[in-house]
Amino acid sequence: MNSRLNLNPPPQQLEKPEPRLLDFIERTLFRNRLAVLVFFLIVSLLLGYKALALRPDASFLRMIPSSHPFIQNYLQYEDVLRPQSNVLRVLVENPKGEILDPVFMETLREVNDKIFYLPGVDRGKLKSLWTPNALWSEVTTEGVRSGRVIPDTYDASPGSLSQVRQNILRANMLGNIVANDWRSTIIRVPLLDNDPQTGKPLDYGAFSQALNTQVREHFSAQGVTIRVIGFAQIIGDLLAAASDIALFFAITVGLISVLLYLYCRCWRSTAVTVLTCLLTVICQLGLLSLLGYGLDPYSILVPFLIFAIGISHAVQNINLMMNEMGNGCAALPASKRTFRALFIPGSTALLADAVGFITLLVIDIGVIQQLAITASIGVFVAIFTKMFLLPVLMSYVGISPRGLRQQRERSQSDWPVFRRLAGVMHTPVAVAVILTSLVLLGLGYHARQNLQVGDLDAGAPELRAQARYNQDNAYLLAHYSASTDVYVLIFKTPPEQCSRFAAADLANQLEQHLLEVPGVESVQSLYGTMRFNIAARNEGNPKWAEFSRDQYVMNNARAGVATELVDPNCNIAPISLYLADHKAQTLSRVSAAVEQFNRTYNTGDFQILQAAGNAGIEAATNQVIKHSEKLMVLLVFAIISLVVFFEFKSLKVTIALMAPLYLSTVLCEAVMAQMGLGVKIATLPVIALGVGIGVDYGIYLYSRMEGFMQQGLAMRAAYFETLKTTGTSVAFTGITLALGVSTWVFSELKFQADMGLLLVLLFIWNMIGALILMPALIAVLMPSRAGTRTV
């Protein structure tokens, strides 16, 4: 072995020569170091100030694929469909007994009034026992009678309470508005998209907080139990957990800082590195605020990912600085040499990171697109902080004597582990590694066959099963007949023709067809109410519960029905399907059944449009994700492959760097399938993020390895020297980032825990793939690159 091999050749030997560009940037950067620091200081202060104004943000419209045909249909008829879609169900329970108690009924009225005046509530469509739209009707010998469930004559006397009970049964509210055990009742609260006071999109975080303090906490102190179900509450709970996310971020930063110090044993470089990475996050948040963006529940994790990217690149800088100063360079020339060695591969890796994020824009869901923009802005900032600010700072602080002693001890080590690992470049070993990887790929393909799109759990899968929201949802399902998963069809007729016999007959056939679909439990529509009214007007005889060809009878049956069942022009009649769950398979079956019905039957002037309701909107979201996922993954790999090819000008090198990433992706999807995690808004970005971050390892390793091969080293010897330098930082980065995100498994947010687990697997697998599979592929694909010198 040549023990005096120069491990740090001149920069022009380390990288493909780009002399003019590098010389210009290097001169400009290091001749104006003080100006660079002042510039970054001013920008950081300004953006840090703007970051203070950043607030959590969420919007109903950004959570849904707004250009999907289902959503376009919903938005077109939003005024009619809002009570079945963006709606909260506030359950008010009497823990002491039934709701028909004078004290409880008065408290219920106060709850109703308090909710009525919350900004963002669609007050005209609010419904509870106390609202004027809670009506009953019956047919008597004197004709049809109707009235409010709680009449104007209500005085809380036993007789009045008995009358309310009778009216609830007349209005068919038991199991729907009133619990089957009579111990709770629902206030149905449709929400507006925009705050009527400000005109801006409704702030779900603020609304949920107001509902929690003014209703839940206030009336819980009066002895009633308040439960809230709906989209706005889910978002509110996620935003409320932002403080927990900040705590995990702080823990992660602390853990990574400790591990980084143990790696380099230099408090100077550790402090500068962590400070620079935090500065990247602060500037990213400031730019978001400056551009008018907020942080929604799903992009609130992006700052950590940007911090992780920063650490990944900064460790390479520290590692090379230690090598240079260990060989006798002063801080300034060592920083210059490090800058020249890392500028091109570092910029290429950051560009690949950005590509991984930008490809998320192909998914037409606002929160994912905002996540892509948020992360891309972070990478844009990282290019400046990591490529320019960090080298300048390191030129001042350098590496401490203790850190240099640590480096000398490493350089004198025989590295038995890396020596054995370098054996992967031996062709038989390389072939064995590739064959093993192919077996893993096959197993991954087999295991991922059960991977599904959408939610696979009841309630809100973003939250733990024991979370308050999911407990509230479980209570509703246990005590009410109506499901919380509502799939709403839009039955459209010409104006004033919704009560025609032909329309009613077609809608009836549709309802009967859908009731046979597994997962559909019940149907509610104008036409069920009309059949009930026709029978009621014929002495309650069930033989008359059919539609009539007499238009007078049909019009009479439509009179007085609830406003949520038909619009004033009698041309939109929503048909609500109550489902057993909102699993992807259930939603797909319902959607396919409606399409089949449309193909089978000639609907003529009538249209059956999909879909609204929380389940209908989720079906649209699932379809968008299903159709976009493969395109996104294809674009991620295609564009990053082009970036790698542009950098190394070799198809074989591109294959060697990208193949481990594809294997990691397949294995990650296999784990998701086995864990019962669906591909959805919370998990979809992980793949793109993992590929974008994972390619960094391969780029740095091969760049360093190529530099040693240009000196004439054989591939195995070059790889051994690469492992001693860049390999240590790659291994450290992969393990450190994996340990950092592993703390997420303790989060109260299930989607954060799931995302953390998947990122741990991707960080580790990408690291192992870069250290083992990538060199094995290089050895097999490029056997002619062997040099003359050996270790």
TrEMBL record:
Subcellular location field: Cell membrane
Is Transmembrane set as a keyword in this record? yes
Q: Which UniProt keywords apply?
A: Cell membrane, Membrane, Transmembrane, Transmembrane helix
| Membrane-traversing stretches | 34-52, 245-264, 271-294, 300-320, 341-363, 375-399, 420-445, 631-648, 655-675, 681-702, 723-746, 758-782
Q: Where is this protein primarily located?
A: membrane
Name any one Pfam family assigned in the record.
MMPL
Q: Which residues, by range, are in coiled-coil regions?
A: none
Q: Does the keyword Cell membrane apply?
A: yes
What membrane topology is annotated for this entry? Multi-pass membrane protein
SSD domain boundaries: 274-396
Please give the GO cellular component terms listed in this UniProt entry. Answer: plasma membrane
**Which PANTHER family did the record assign?**
MEMBRANE PROTEIN MJ1562-RELATED, SSD DOMAIN-CONTAINING PROTEIN
Protein name, entry field:
MMPL family transporter
Specify the species: Pseudomonas spelaei
